[in-house]
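Preliminary data (for renewal application), zinc ion complex.
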Amino acid sequence: MGEKRDQVLFKSRKSHRGQRYIEWRYAVMNQGSYRCCLCGSTAELTADHIKPVVNYPELAFDVKNGRILCEPCRLKDMLASWEEGKFERQR
Ligand SMILES: [Zn+2]
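Predicted structure:
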């Protein structure tokens, strides 16, 4: 049952925000002591994928591929990644 659901999740990349995503985010937050790993902020924290899920869907729920970023740092990093061409541009 679990495996089939995983396959569906990995096929539709945009729907990775399910229960597993919530658990992944929780695990990432726990391993990183609730601070932004770039600026040390403790406000507006989000769990970020080190390697973009767009390119590495198999790492979507890998805790080692997770890090804590605050929202401003996440946006900055995302823009930088776009400029480097790490992400596929999507509308
Ligand atoms: Zn930050």
